[in-house]
């Protein structure tokens, strides 16, 4: 679009040596594509399997189609990518930057800042100013084409922008206006409602929803094959379900379970060939333990006891015994119990008692209330609903 193309100005002072910027340095996020093979071995899988191109990003077809259209039309508005963690916001913008600039030019053209750093907006402003005003010293190449004029814009990625104060957001608004001539901003946040309306109105918004189980499964199965993970089919099902749309969580849990299923090696012992490593099989139980989610049998026992035992003390003892033996947190028990209760066919009054009661307890637990007292409250709420049934 012409309003983006006309006002490019890449002249300015020579690059300053003292600013630190890198497309992928923030939060230790690095692309496996740029690393030597030996280093890849010790990489967390979330980095090793981070999408390199936009085609590698799972799910979010509509968003990817629109972003691809922007590139084809030589148009790059300011972007806001928001949504829950581990859904591919950072990966998408890095893949887009790679597509626009090519790997070799990214260092010069992309500045990634973590907006929640406590360096303050003044430092951020200074970094942006220096970055935006430095001259572009590369000749287009390495994937970027000369006719592709959006490659002339610098890209500033502001991660975790929702952690910025209101004052910082106001300052950012000004900064965005000032450097629009040769710079585009991509704001990344978990919650759009924590961003000021003034910032929101300057960006084209994309909501990254939790990934579908099918999308998570495809990558998990690929990693299982490539890393020789020994895992039961049902354990993959449990992993995909318990990840709740968070791909980072799925890969981290899989890697942790794989590591714990691999026999320990002595410090100087060389790594044996893959075929000789005797790993234990990862089971559903391993996955539940690693995620620290209550095992389905434990939840079943808790729910059955709560529904069928009028003796409140006995209910409390059952929950407390399971909490101790399985190391469960009350917050996780509440979520699991609620999931089970909502599957029951009961009248509206009972269901409202359960839902409203458990929601309140969860809120209190999140605010630091005593687990012991709140465990009693769970028993009270569920039994209260059961008593209503018999009226
Ligand atoms: N849509 C996806 N397709 C493929 N891999 C993904 C996707 N989403 C997340 N991942 C995996 O999870 C890791 C974390 O993803 P990413 O950093 O893009 O998430 P994010 O949405 O930016 O999360 P946060 O809000 O916590 O910063 C990636 O390195 C990648 O391995």
From TrEMBL:
Occurrences of domain AAA+ ATPase (ranges): 75-214
Gene Ontology biological-process entries: DNA repair; leading strand elongation
Nucleus listed as a keyword: yes
Single Gene Ontology MF annotation: ATP binding
Nucleotide-binding among keywords: yes
Entry-linked InterPro entries: AAA+_ATPase, ATPase_AAA_core, DNA_pol3_clamp-load_cplx_C, DNA_Rep/Repair_Clamp_Loader, P-loop_NTPase, Rep_factorC_C
Domain of life, source organism: Eukaryota
Main location (coarse class): nucleus
Keywords noted in UniProt: ATP-binding, DNA replication, Nucleotide-binding, Nucleus
GO cellular component: Ctf18 RFC-like complex; cytosol; DNA replication factor C complex; Elg1 RFC-like complex; Rad17 RFC-like complex
Location of this chain's protein in the cell: Nucleus
PANTHER family: REPLICATION FACTOR C / DNA POLYMERASE III GAMMA-TAU SUBUNIT, REPLICATION FACTOR C SUBUNIT 5
Similarity-based family: Belongs to the activator 1 small subunits family.
Name of the protein: Replication factor C subunit 3
Organism: Hypocrea atroviridis (strain ATCC 20476 / IMI 206040)
């Amino acid at each position: 679009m012409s309003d983006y193309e006309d006002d490019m100005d890449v002249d300015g002072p020579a690059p300053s040596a003292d600013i630190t910027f890198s497309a992928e340095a923030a939060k230790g996020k690095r692309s496996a594509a740029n690393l030597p093979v030996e280093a890849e071995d010790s990489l967390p899988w979330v980095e090793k399997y981070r999408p390199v191109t936009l085609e590698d990003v799972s799910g979010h077809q509509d968003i990817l189609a629109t972003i691809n259209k922007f590139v084809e039309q030589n148009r790059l508005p300011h972007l806001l990518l928001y949504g829950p963690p581990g859904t591919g916001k950072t990966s998408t913008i890095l893949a887009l930057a790679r597509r626009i600039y090519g790997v070799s030019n990214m260092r010069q053209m992309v500045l990634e800042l973590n907006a929640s750093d406590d360096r303050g907006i003044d430092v951020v402003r200074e970094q942006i100013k220096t970055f935006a005003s430095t001259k572009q010293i590369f000749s287009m190449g390495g994937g970027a084409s000369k006719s592709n004029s959006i490659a002339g814009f610098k890209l500033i990625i502001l991660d975790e922008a929702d952690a910025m104060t209101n004052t910082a957001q106001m300052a950012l608004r000004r900064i965005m206006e000032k450097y629009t001539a040769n710079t585009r901003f991509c704001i990344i946040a978990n919650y759009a409602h924590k961003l000021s309306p003034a910032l929101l109105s300057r960006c084209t918004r994309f909501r990254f929803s939790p990934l579908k189980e099918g999308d998570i499964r495809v990558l998990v199965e690929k990693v299982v094959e490539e890393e020789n993970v020994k895992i039961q089919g049902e354990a993959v099902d449990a992993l995909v379900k318990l990840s709740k749309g968070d791909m980072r969580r799925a890969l981290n849990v899989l890697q942790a379970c794989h590591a714990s299923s691999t026999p320990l090696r002595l410090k100087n012992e060389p790594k044996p060939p893959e075929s000789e490593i005797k790993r234990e099989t990862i089971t559903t139980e391993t996955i539940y333990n690693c995620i620290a989610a209550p095992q389905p049998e434990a939840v079943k026992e808790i729910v059955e006891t709560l529904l069928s035992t009028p003796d409140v003390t006995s209910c409390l003892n059952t929950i407390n015994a399971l909490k101790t033996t399985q190391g469960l947190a009350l917050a996780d028990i509440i979520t699991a119990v609620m999931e089970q209760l909502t599957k029951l066919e009961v009248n509206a009054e009972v269901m409202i008692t359960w839902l409203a009661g458990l929601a309140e307890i969860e809120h209190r637990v999140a605010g630091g209330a005593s687990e012991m007292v709140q465990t009693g409250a769970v028993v009270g709420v569920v039994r209260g609903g059961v008593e209503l049934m018999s009226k």
